[in-house]
Amino acid sequence: MNRHIKSIFLGFVLIFLLIQIIQPARNIDYGQVPSTDISKVYKVPDNVQFVLRQSCYDCHSNSTHYPFYSYIQPLGYYIEKHIKNGKEELNFNEWGSYSQRKQANKLESVANQIQQKKMPLTSYTYLHPKAVLSESQIKEMIRWIELMKAEHNKANKN
Question: Residue 31: pLDDT above 90?
Answer without folding.
Answer: no
